[in-house]
Backbone:
């Protein structure tokens, strides 16, 4: 009805314009009709977007899958000049080291405040592969140390491979890095990663990504200093699958959170519903590593298994909570984790207060538990606060009971103390097939009744 009324008004308007006369009454009728349409709901018209293809051309208009652009920088430049803020990448191999295909800097593209609101998406079910040739430093760099204000960037459905960092961020907010694949990331140091979240990144979702094959960390969050622009807050790592990391680098984690300044304001970092398999080729890798006073981190509903040294490591931080996780201890030493103070030349011992390890399942499918299933390093002069460890379920198919202790000092003064689980349960959790990395539960598992464990990854496929 509104469209019919609008068409009558437009026909009347055309006749009026031919006589070079439009009365105020006519203008009011046209405005009222537009207002009525907005209230009733006008027909949906898809917004414009650009397209990229490895067989495209930057001489095209980029406005359809049949006339796509060729290079990432050209598409970025086009979006900066127009109101279009979405680009779809069609399937195929994008060689980022080929002359003219990427920016001149150490990255394929660098997204800055001029790119706010952009979405870089795989087209339909296509698989766009961004290849760094084994030498490119960064596939996609969001933000920069002197470019505060980059925000509302979405990267979804892309494959990044053969580069030092897949996606790196700094001084930016409201990012969505979702559903991407990272293969053969050749981290040169522990400061590189498939997804490398540098200081000043806030309010961001890192979710549903698949990482397989990294010489260093899979996902890294690093804080740079004590000022507000350097803080990392409200970053959520959810539903990522991370396999075969730390294959050449030691002292890092599949998920590696590094906070050298003990920033109490670094809050809202969550590690939830991730799967980590094979996290150390050296074998000194860690599954989830909270390093150098990283604090206020919530680690829940994750599964960590396979080759590596420790499933979990807390180094100097406080108020970190590990709850409702499954840890199948690594193949090195049969220990769940390391609890280490941060007394040293560069850091201050803040006491490590408020750390919690509760309602987790600690299993041993590939090696027997050691005599102690935690390592403890306390080098401080005053001692540290041990974590609250309670209500965890333990099981080793090779032994009939939990080892005699749950922590042992490995270096430095221990002050004659160690920590134990105050309410431990020793029982078979009845996994479907832990030897094949399937940690779904058979019916009747005591985990749900004895330690109030909550189901995670029901029906999940494990690699």
Residues:
């Amino acid at each position: 009805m509104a469209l019919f009324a609008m068409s009558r008004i437009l026909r009347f308007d055309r006749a009026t314009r031919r006589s070079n006369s439009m009365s105020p009454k006519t203008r009011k009728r046209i405005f009222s009709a537009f207002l009525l349409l907005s209230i009733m709901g006008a027909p949906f018209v898809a917004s414009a977007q650009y397209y990229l293809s490895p067989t495209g051309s930057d001489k095209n208009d980029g406005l359809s899958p049949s006339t796509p652009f060729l290079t990432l920088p050209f598409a970025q430049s086009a979006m900066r000049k127009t109101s279009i803020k979405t680009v779809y990448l069609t399937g195929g191999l994008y060689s980022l080291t080929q002359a003219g295909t990427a920016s001149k800097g150490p990255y394929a593209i660098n997204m800055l405040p001029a790119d706010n609101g952009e979405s870089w998406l795989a087209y339909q079910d296509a698989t766009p592969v961004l290849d760094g040739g084994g030498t490119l430093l960064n596939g996609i760099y969001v933000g920069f140390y002197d470019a505060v204000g980059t925000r509302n960037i979405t990267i979804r459905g892309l494959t990044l491979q053969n580069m030092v960092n897949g996606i790196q961020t700094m001084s930016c907010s409201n990012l969505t890095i979702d559903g991407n694949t990272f293969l053969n990331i050749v981290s040169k140091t522990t400061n590189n990663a498939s997804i490398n979240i540098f200081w000043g990144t806030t309010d961001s979702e890192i979710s549903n990504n698949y990482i397989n094959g990294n010489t260093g960390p899979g996902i890294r969050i690093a804080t740079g200093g004590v000022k507000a622009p350097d803080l990392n807050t409200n970053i959520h790592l959810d539903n990522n699958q991370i396999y075969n990391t730390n294959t050449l680098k030691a002292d890092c984690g599949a998920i590696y959170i590094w906070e050298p300044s003990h920033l109490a304001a670094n809050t809202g970092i969550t590690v939830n519903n991730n799967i980590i398999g094979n996290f150390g080729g050296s074998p000194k890798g860690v599954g989830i590593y909270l390093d150098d006073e990283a604090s206020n981190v919530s680690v829940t509903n994750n599964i960590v298994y396979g080759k590596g040294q420790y499933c979990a490591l807390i180094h100097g931080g406080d108020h970190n909570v590990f709850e409702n996780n499954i840890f199948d201890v690594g193949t090195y030493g049969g220990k769940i984790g390391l609890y280490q103070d941060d007394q040293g030349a560069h850091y201050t011992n803040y006491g490590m207060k408020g750390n919690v390890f509760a309602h987790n399942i600690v299993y041993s499918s590939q090696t027997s538990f050691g005599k102690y299933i935690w390592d403890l390093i306390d080098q401080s002069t005053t001692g540290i606060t041990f974590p609250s460890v309670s209500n965890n379920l333990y099981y080793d198919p090779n032994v009939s009971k939990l080892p005699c202790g749950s922590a042992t000092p490995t270096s430095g003064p221990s002050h004659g103390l160690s920590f134990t689980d105050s309410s431990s349960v020793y029982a078979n959790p009845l996994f479907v097939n832990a030897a094949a990395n399937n940690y779904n539960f058979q019916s009747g598992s005591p985990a749900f009744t004895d330690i109030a464990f909550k189901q995670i990854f029901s029906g999940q496929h494990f690699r």
Observations:
- The helical segments are 2-18, 24-40, 72-81, 447-450.
- Residues 1-22, 24-28, 30-45 have pLDDT under 50 and may be disordered.
- The two ends are 57 Å apart (CA to CA).
- The chain is about 10% helix and 35% strand.
